[in-house]
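Quick board copy: two proteins, each given as sequence then tokens.
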Amino acid sequence: MATSEPKSVESEEEQPDTQVAANADEYMKHPLQNKWALWYFKNDKSKTWTENLRLISRFDTVEDFWALYNHIQQPSKLGYGCDYCLFKDGIKPMWEDVGNKLGGRWLMTLSKQQRHNDLDRFWMETLLCLVGETFDEASEDVCGAVVNVRPKGDKIAVWTSNCQNRDAIMTIGQLYKERLNIPSKAMCYQSHDDTSSKSGSTTKNMYSV
């Protein structure tokens, strides 16, 4: 991601080394381990699902992440049917994407009351877990995260790349639960295949923490 370059120094006498170092540090950005893309979904029934999904921005530094985060609405301010999706760049926030199709998600469902008390905080912590690679080596299995704003209760999910990679999945689930400081059995893991092929309103859970 391009950054502004410090102005050129004509001579060492005019600009001491200490000042040059200070200016360079001022313009230096801190790179993230991965490049990320933030998507927004608005449920407009006159459009197809794909047409409703819009890429907001990509970023790969700490500073650009916070610049983006501080200039968008919090999830609690979104309308019903809207989503935010943060995914590693190159992976689209849909089951069919090659990066997601063999995977699943850790899912947390919030009560209506939690929209005002917990939703925004939980989402911010989720984003920090992703961009900060909080899950150690298991972070490689993380594809992204989604927040769904819904009338019956909002949802936050962390998507992983392979639903059979139990060790990575459980590491992610345990560390995520600890980071959010939520009760035991508050999150369940479901494969995308089970979610997309369910016949009723519920999807079977593979794991829970």
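And the next:
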Amino acid sequence: MSRPRLGLALGSGSARGWSHIGILGALAERGLRADVITGASVGALVGAASAAGRLDALERWVCTLTQRDVWRLVDTTFRGGGVMSGNRLMKTIAEQIGDAPIESLPTTFGAVATDLYTGEEIWLREGSFMAAVRASSGLPGLLAPTWYQQRWLIDGGVVNPVPVSLCRALGADVVIAVDLRRSVTKMAMRAPEGLADSQDRKKAAENEAAVEATSEASAEGTAILRRWAGLVDGLVESFRSRRSDPGLFEVMSGAVNIMQDRITRSRLAIDPADLVLRPDLADFQLMDFHRAREAIEIGRKQVQTVAPQLASIAAQLRSGQ
């Protein structure tokens, strides 16, 4: 009998997704290397890098990112169905981890996307893995949809935020899932009642730095952002408005989070994983990509907390049962 195949289903979650890197590294240290990896959105990105053997390169790069670097990657547009086209971001990522046909990867890989017009769950199993990552990462309202395989595709997290079903379909016998959704209950408990003066000054300084960085990246983007100053205040949750009412992108992010919270609960009930890891990343905002070191460490610590369950899975894999 052949040994059971281990699968990893990496969930969507924007900047929280860097925790996948820490989780994958900690699992590998315990001898748990995946035979199958699937992902949605940022989970697809980290999963593709791992499947291609380029996870270390991705980790080195994300750990160098500053908030200004993140803003430089924002290619603003108010056309095409999103605030960002995503082209600059994906080109930069490809420079770090390369690209290759999914069929050629040493580890079985698949990404999930959503057909914008039919709502179908689309499994991406062939062609450029970077093209699949981009198609899986079109967060509604933020990143423009992608025309891929004769469809307009948006974020896979819209229909399957933690793609356990795809993992099993690709041959995984044992599945470890990583769920990055932010608990709606916990978020309600942390709902802000207002910002202190010191926080106001800090956020104002961050907004100014963001506009400056965008100016360096694109003169056209700067003109747009200055014209739409209200959108700059709300472009990411971390740049909260001084007003007590939520900004545009906070509303968008909150709505997506609520949707994914409900969908993930339903999908994991129907397609349960053998083990679900839920790192505590509630303090991470939509665009906190510059906080990679923190997220990675949180991911590593999450693996430590489930050591007994992982030992059981490792024994199961060794025994072939």
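Board note added afterward: The longest strand covers residues 108-115.
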